[in-house]
Design brief:
By secondary structure, the protein is an alpha/beta fold. The protein contains 12 helices and 18 strands. It binds iron/sulfur cluster. Iron/sulfur cluster (SF4) binds next to helix 5.
């Protein structure tokens, strides 16, 4: 019997939600479906989704093709208009078992209608089922039927969704709605389920993770959640945090990071730029100096910490001097794992209406930033030669270190296990390790 064929774009949140959709589709009798879970962060991500849809239709002419995800939420009509698609689901509907049952009915030619007490989705005038409700009306985050991630050694657990900020370049809030948190007891249950399913590492993920708890009763923050998870699931060896906002991180989190070796020494920072004028025009909540101070402080608390960061190159109005400040930030903060995006104007965002930097300049600056990150990575790797590290073997011959580095290891080392290796070299992108 077929299993749903899921094509996932974008972030860990989408990867986690694809796992939930697999179960909903199977339960609704849509095991033969092709599901494209899209991303809207850049124009390129949307172009790739359309390309994947056309390719999937050619490869699977008989199977129902369903489009969902942030690009479907923000631009559903465009995907419904594609001859290759059979249905479009919004980001609330994709995680709703009832919506999948309705969809199965609709695809078997029953009339499409809104699922029970949920707000009526905007119906696009096609005979295709298009179920997209107002994402800003979403208030709650319910636990998803996911106990582990098939085919992965590390499990993602969604603890937060949506965002209340409105950075001027960002379309995410329009795809995912306002911030909402999964209650602590549900997070603990999901982490325990992932550990019981055999995952030695869990990654807590969300859109604006550091806002976790703000919408829940009480004053709990991300640090409290992390401390509670580590206490409640002592058998979990490795807990990792996906991405944080330096302006919002709480003191408890930093204390746990300083004291708890099961919290991985790897922080991915949503910095975006290293120039104060650009940060202001992005409507970010931190300054350049705050970012540098934060990294220095965390390094003092947890010397083995390694930072990653999101950076945008060529944001509107960015001059060579402003870009130089962002480039220098890579060194000033010691940023190793860089996710660099040439600015991509998103329809409807304020930044799309600002004076644009030529696309070629943005791409060239992105290349320069990536090169600076690789220099930091080489320096880190050189400093680790001869060290013994605990790594999680992710697939034959490849493991993940606690600081997020990829380590090439002997194929004989068992997948899914945490082993000790001695670092013998590197190729600038990955470390080499032998069993210690
Ligand atoms: S914090 Fe800003 S960049 Fe991040 S999701 Fe929210 S609006 Fe987008």
């Amino acid at each position: 019997m077929n299993a749903p064929h899921i094509i996932t774009f974008g972030c860990r949140l989408n990867a986690f939600e694809s796992e939930a959709m697999r179960r909903h589709a199977e339960a609704a009798g849509l095991s033969n479906a092709v599901i494209v879970n899209t991303c809207a962060v850049t124009a390129e991500a949307q172009r790739q989704a359309r390309q994947a849809i056309r390719k999937a239709r050619r490869s699977h002419p008989e199977r129902p093709l369903i489009v969902t995800g942030c690009a479907a939420q923000t631009d559903g009509a465009a995907f419904a208009a594609m001859p290759e698609t059979d249905a479009v689901l919004g980001n609330v509907e994709k995680l709703n078992a009832k919506a999948w049952r309705r969809l199965a009915q609709a695809l078997s030619h029953a009339e499409c209608s809104p699922p029970g007490d949920e707000p009526a989705p905007a119906v696009v005038e096609t005979e295709k089922p298009v179920m997209i409700s107002d994402i800003m009306a979403a208030r709650r985050l319910a636990p998803l039927p996911v106990a582990g991630m098939s085919g992965r050694t590390r499990a993602f657990v969604q603890v937060q969704n949506g965002c209340n900020h409105r950075c001027t370049f960002c379309i995410i809030p329009f795809g995912r709605g306002n911030a909402r948190s999964l209650p602590m007891e549900d997070v603990i249950a999901q982490v325990r389920a992932a550990r019981n399913a055999g995952h030695r590492e869990v990654v807590l993920t969300g859109v604006d993770l550091t806002s976790w708890g703000e919408d829940l009763p009480g004053q709990a923050r991300l640090g409290d959640l992390v401390a509670a998870v580590l206490k409640a699931v002592p058998e979990l060896e490795r807990l990792r945090i996906s991405s944080i906002d330096v302006a919002e991180i709480d003191e408890t989190f930093l204390n746990v990071l300083a004291q708890e070796e099961r919290l991985m020494p790897h922080l991915h920072l949503s910095l975006q730029a290293g120039d104060d004028m650009i940060l202001k025009r992005m409507k970010r909540r931190h300054s350049r100096a705050q970012a540098v101070d934060f990294c220095a402080r965390v390094r003092a608390l947890r010397p083995d910490v390694v930072f990653g960061a999101d950076l945008i190159a060529g944001f509107p109005t960015e001059t060579e001097e402003m870009f130089a400040n962002t480039l220098q930030l890579v060194e000033d903060c010691g940023l190793v794992w860089l996710h660099v995006f040439p600015f991509s104007p998103r329809p409807g965002t304020p930044a799309a209406r600002m004076p644009q930097v030529p696309a070629a300049t943005a791409r060239a600056r992105a290349q320069t930033l990536r090169a600076a990150g690789e220099q930091q990575k080489r320096a880190l790797f050189d400093s680790l030669l001869g060290e013994t590290m605990r790594v999680l073997v992710e697939r034959p011959g490849l493991a993940r270190a606690e600081n997020h580095a990829e380590v090439m290891v002997p194929e004989a080392l068992p997948v899914g296990e945490i082993v000790r290796v001695r670092i013998t070299g590197h190729d600038g992108m990955r470390l080499n390790g032998v069993a210690a």
